[in-house]
């Protein structure tokens, strides 16, 4: 569900020909801070039930539009946080709307795998 909401917000931006250029988990906020407690499958040695908190709503907001650019305006050579930077940026081939989609894909991999992408895909390049 979160992936659908996230991608729909990107589609809205792209319809306006806007490129965020700095998509990363820190720039994605939940709209509501309300949550529900649900029992976790984990139990400790005393057989106590643990709970996990899940957001009541999956609505999100994107923030930090400081480096946002229009698709048709001149672009700087380096954008995006290193771990979420698209290959075309790293290789110096220029960039456009798809660089945001690469960042979205990296973030979704982190969410689904519950692991951070500690090393960028191309760690030896600037």
UniProtKB/TrEMBL annotation:
Alphabetical list of Gene3D superfamilies matching this protein: Transferase(Phosphotransferase) domain 1 (1.10.510.10)
Matches recorded under SUPFAM superfamilies: Protein kinase-like (PK-like)
Keyword Zinc: no
Highest taxon of the lineage: Eukaryota
Domain Protein kinase: 1-126
GO cellular component: nucleus
Keywords: ATP-binding, Kinase, Nucleotide-binding, Serine/threonine-protein kinase, Transferase
Pfam family of the protein (one): Pkinase
One GO MF term attached to the UniProt entry: protein serine/threonine kinase activity
InterPro entries to which the protein is assigned, alphabetical: CLK_kinases, Kinase-like_dom_sf, Prot_kinase_dom, Ser/Thr_kinase_AS
Entry-linked PANTHER family: SERINE/THREONINE-PROTEIN KINASE DOA-RELATED, SERINE_THREONINE-PROTEIN KINASE DOA
Listed name of the protein: Protein kinase domain-containing protein
Species of the source: Aegilops tauschii subsp. strangulata (Goatgrass)
